[in-house]
């Protein structure tokens, strides 16, 4: 416990909170979960959570911020932070916040995110501008689509024109539909050691598309099912070792480019959402600039993390290890903001 | 070993026997496997099995029961107990039996099981009675269908009428076909501490439906493949954390309702077989009132079990831990019958 | 370290090198990775690799062989050894080589491999000879097809005749297309203890076929996607326990038959690539006579390995354990050649 110098690890009760707080506890930190009333019963079940602050709505987070500051809490953001608090409220936080807030604008703006990936020489799907002839299958996504709604497919110009008429989103992108298998790579970049790790790999479990294949083609026809991509879980994967070199290099280019584009660059966990084509080429659909839910599969370790560590290291625990090292070397300012 | 006071853990050589006996051994128990002749070679391979009683047929189990009683054996039932011995022979057992035998009738009778789930306010698929108009896709299952045979799909009234003519089962149910992804939640309820744990999560690996998606639609057409749902394996999953609160609450309502409906209620391991829809709603297809085969993925721990325990706890090992605690606190009668 | 008597474990930087060298390190061996220039950056990341020998091309391996011999290196072959060096260069190696080189000819020749499986009474798909009437769905594979290219399907004689015209391969086989789910069993046979273990089980993750099911049937039609089977990853499975007895027995028959067919027989890791049909019958598509990439999922242990060992044993580590035991008992000659 001495190694933590009284700092505590806190997060919102959602997304990857269990993993983050379990990992923090394993590294000797006291832990705090900020949970909405409907989730209190969930987080109360776990002994590794030392304090539970109840709020009515996630947006009430600012109300307990002073308490967190008094607690010497360090907040670990995850997917629910931007989803429920919005970027501005993340930026305004005065409590210690792990990760670079300057990354938030680059991640949330599709144009900026694409510029980042392209400058990093990371392969991205072709994007169609208004008026471009659609010469291949496309996926049309509404801006800020979350949780898998707000998509449609079109296999050509004609189908695109028919379906766009019924699409409610005002802002959307039209993107090449890359045919291949999805694979999500969970990275961790340490600003203290300047090294990048791949900690684990998953694919999402999406309803209903991940059950469609179980319905024979002839039965699908009549059911008139519309595919949906709502993520409700994850399953583990290993990546072909010959693709691992490229996976590391892509991650390193993403980090290096971020250091040029935004002051300080990205650090901590991030995820590249890839499609791998039959030519064994990655196509990067999106970057998530924080811990992703797929890491929840690896609370008790992963085949990749065990290449670096002789203990069970989840991404949540890896974050706590980084914070502990920063405390030990008096570099906490370097990793918080 | 002292903690076990000479009690031994025994089970039939099938289903989850390796996990159960390995977990028992890890907790310090002597172990007994009762195996049919064709399986002796399998169970002889493992050092954590201390004794192997050979029988010709599973139905010969009563012949070695006296020996088990002399051994101070506690029997852990799994899926093969009801499948091979039948409910009545389970009830008649005089050897110590982990779990509540009163649950057997409620589980095996589809009407009673549905009543249980509905009183527990657990969402179940719509059921069609004879003469009801079929206004959505349905799955038709024969009573007591085991191992995945005895099913058919119909997308509407007309298709139902055509296919029911060739269906051999006398007794069957007609149930809404819920479109979404399957996910099996492995619970453990401790009657000693009155707490419910989620120990792991899986999906089944079913032949041939889990390979259909790999055959392009145009090829499927001509092959005329009939889907089958025979479970031959399992694969691991993590559940979206925001659905975990509901998963725990459903489990707790199932336990609480069982205590009203049957003397003592359900304890030990059970599994809710769910479908998750694109609206992120659970639909419960079935309850299994004992250890399920999906837990075999987690002999060396799971991301969920590690939230409670600092060792590798499978469901099999969790059972042994409960028995050991009951021995220590002189409450063995509370958990056996 | 004393237990290793100065022997080092070496392999080519590819395929399962990380697992093999990590496992060797865990058992106390010094480790050597022989990597091509483009992979040096990958293998330099890992502390468990003690030495890294850089070569320009895999085919330059003979150039550093003398160095390996001076190092007292024992080479662990994996999938890239035959793929990149060819059988003859494997046979010519003078450095200590784990596994029986006599197996290479039997594995690489489809006729011999089939004879081996059939004499072992292992079920294999029906094979059609030139002129045979094709009375069921078939898969047509070019000889030496690697990485998943060079396949096509035909559902009957007519479709076969149409598609064979555009097939570029000169040598090919026409094989029954078995409808069921794929499952890969990772065996390890110890020539020291004469026992067979099942260490883990996976299925492959293949682009694009493993994403086809996520595209609704009506959308597939227009896209005109040709299925491809390029392995880019793996995902873990558990096998139904009632099929485990047969899985062990098949493995043992394969080992026993190999001892009749080739001097010394097969030892160390091998994999049976199976399809399991709805009748719960295995059909064996291929044997791989060495460590397979699917074992990379289990660097930190597997539910099967933990039935034998109280530590995290991957196939890579299991190999190192066997070598260490051979060193201890002065039987290294028995397992190298």
Task: Write up this protein.
Three copies of one chain form a homotrimer. Chain A is an alpha/beta fold and 337 residues long. Chain A is 31% helix and 26% strand. The first copy, chain A, is built from twelve helices and 15 strands. A five-stranded parallel sheet of chain A has the order 3-2-1-4-5. In chain A, strands 12-11-10-14-15 form a five-stranded antiparallel sheet. In chain A, helix 1 (17-26) crosses helix 11 (315-328). Chain A is globular. The two termini of chain A are 24 Å apart. Chains A and B meet through helix 1, strand 11, helix 8, helix 9 and strand 12 of A and strand 10, strand 11, helix 8, helix 9 and strand 13 of B.
Summarize the biggest pleated sheet of chain A. Answer: 5 strands, parallel
Q: Hey, roughly how much beta strand do the residues of chain A contain?
A: 25-35%
Main interface by residue count: A-B, 50 and 52 residues
Q: Could you name the ranges of chain A where pLDDT drops below 50 across 5 or more consecutive residues?
A: none
In which range does the helix fraction of chain A lie?
Answer: 25-40%
Strand order of the largest sheet of chain A: 3-2-1-4-5
State the helix count of chain A: 12
Q: What structural category arises from helix and sheet content of chain A? A: alpha/beta
Separation of the first and last Cα atoms of chain A: 24 Å
Instruction: Report Rg of chain A.
Output: 21 Å
Number of extended strands of chain A: 15
């Amino acid at each position: 416990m001495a190694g933590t110098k009284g700092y505590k690890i806190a997060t919102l009760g959602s997304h990857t909170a269990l993993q983050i707080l379990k990992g923090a506890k394993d590294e000797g930190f006291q832990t705090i979960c900020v949970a909405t009333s409907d989730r209190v019963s969930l987080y109360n079940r776990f002994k590794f959570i030392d304090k539970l602050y109840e709020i009515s709505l996630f947006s009430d987070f600012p109300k307990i911020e002073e308490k967190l500051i008094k607690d010497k809490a360090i907040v670990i953001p995850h997917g629910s932070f931007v989803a429920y608090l919005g970027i501005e409220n993340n930026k305004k936080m005065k409590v210690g916040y792990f990760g670079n807030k300057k990354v938030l604008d680059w991640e949330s703006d599709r144009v900026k995110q694409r510029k980042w990936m392209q400058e990093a020489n990371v392969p991205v799907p072709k994007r169609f501008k208004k008026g471009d002839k659609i010469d291949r299958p496309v996926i049309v996504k509404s801006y800020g689509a979350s949780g898998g709604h707000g998509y449609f497919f079109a296999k050509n110009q004609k189908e695109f024109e028919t379906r766009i008429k019924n699409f409610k989103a005002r802002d959307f992108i039209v993107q090449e539909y890359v045919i291949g298998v999805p694979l999500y790579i969970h990275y961790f970049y340490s600003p203290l050691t300047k090294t990048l790790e791949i900690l684990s790999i998953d694919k999402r479990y999406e309803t209903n598309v991940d059950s469609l294949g179980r319905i024979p083609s002839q039965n699908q026809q009549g059911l008139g099912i519309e595919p949906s991509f709502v993520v409700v879980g994850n399953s583990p994967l290993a990546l072909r070792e010959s693709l691992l070199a490229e996976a590391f290099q892509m991650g390193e280019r993403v980090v290096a480019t971020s250091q040029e584009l935004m002051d300080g660059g990205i650090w901590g966990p991030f995820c590249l959402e890839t499609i791998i084509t039959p030519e064994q080429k990655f196509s990067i659909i999106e970057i998530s600039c924080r811990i992703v839910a797929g890491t929840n599969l690896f609370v008790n370790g992963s085949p990749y993390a065990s290449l670096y560590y002789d203990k069970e290291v989840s991404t949540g625990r890896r974050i706590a290890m980084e914070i502990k090292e920063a405390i030990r070397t008096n570099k906490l300012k370097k990793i918080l903001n």
